[in-house]
Amino acid sequence: MRRLSTLALMAALPLGAVATPALSGEITWWAPEFGEERAAELVRRFEEAHPDIQVNMEPVVTNGLQNRILVALRSGNTPDLIDVANGWNIPFAATGGLLPLEEVLAEKNIPLDDFLPAALETATYEDTLYGLPFRAEAHALIYNKAAYREAGLDPDSPPETWAEFVEASKALTRTTESGVEQYGFGIAGGGEVSNTIFRSLPFIWMNGGNIISTDLSEVGLDSPESIEAVDFYTSMLTEHGVAPPSTLENDGTALRRLFIAGTIAQYQSGQFDLASIHQENPDLEVGTALLPHPEGKERAAILGGWNFVIPEAAPNKEDAATFLAFLAEPENMGYYTDTFPARESAMELERFQDPELGSFREMLKYARQQPPSANWVQITQIYFDYVQEALLGSMSAEEAMTEAAAEIEPLLGQ
User: Fold this and answer.
1) DSSP 411
2) Residues linked to residue 84 through DSSP beta bridges, in sequence order
3) 130: how many CB neighbours lie within 10 A of its CB?
4) The pTM is what?
5) Residue range 7-30: average pLDDT?
6) Exposed (0-12), middle (13-18) or buried (19+): which is 59, by Cβ within 10 Å?
């Protein structure tokens, strides 16, 4: 509810009454609709502690949000605080439309050494911090313990290496005792591009390859390491037959539903899927594990998450900074996030001690940010298109990645 102005309040009060002091500030916060309920509660708590500041929380739809924010930054018609996916932070900073935050955080006594270093990297552009991470996540393996037992596998010893994983996935691909056609591993081959990126790029990294180099100067998709990793991913469908026929249509939501239905026995995702799994199939015995890795090599995952940013054109930067400091308090950050907080002290809160979350927390140690290329959206679209060619069987992994590398090359250095 909008507060009345001082004049309106004075007119409404009886003679002799004392008017409520006028608000010294008003800010607008764009927060994704998936966290609207928690955002509204945080606004209530903040306004209780800061009665002179009004927060207008505007829930925003995530579909198309990146472009909406970009338009706002370029036009100068911005809110005061925005939640942004961490992969957007650096491209937004490159526009010159974000406020540098080091001085703000120092004034508000927010210790940066309490934040995950990899999360801070997603907000750092040209050695300057332009965002404050509040949510961090990494994929782990989610599996059906009962399916393991039925297939003769030990549910307490999930596969560690790629070779073990392929063998386990083959054993899990079977007609179950209840007559369900079950597949060993669900991979994403459809939907929005990031579904496939988050599930396949970590395998490339684990094997020593990349889509583009960390300095953004070279394409790495046509390297033997990258080709081998893409072949490992796509061969789950094309060679081993352990992924369902719907793979080319499956995004993350579809994989979760197939897992809940018992159609797939294992898949990669974030901890945000667990609540839906338990709610929709409370009898399903869920196991979680670290992602399997190539023999003798280290695991990897993409660091997902969200950051707070203050636009350079924000109408009320001072009060936005006060609200940012409130949101950054460990208890508030822990309350707001769907996954893990980006602040390490906030991870000590009780809700993050559930043993089921242990694998996701451990995978954060192996998480890396996506390359901060200005053309990353176009680059990943090209990669995705050729992964689909490999899944269709119209190209080998080597042919597909060689073609993808040639198309990506002109996009570097722009």
Assistant:
1) G
2) 307
3) 25
4) 0.81
5) 52
6) middle
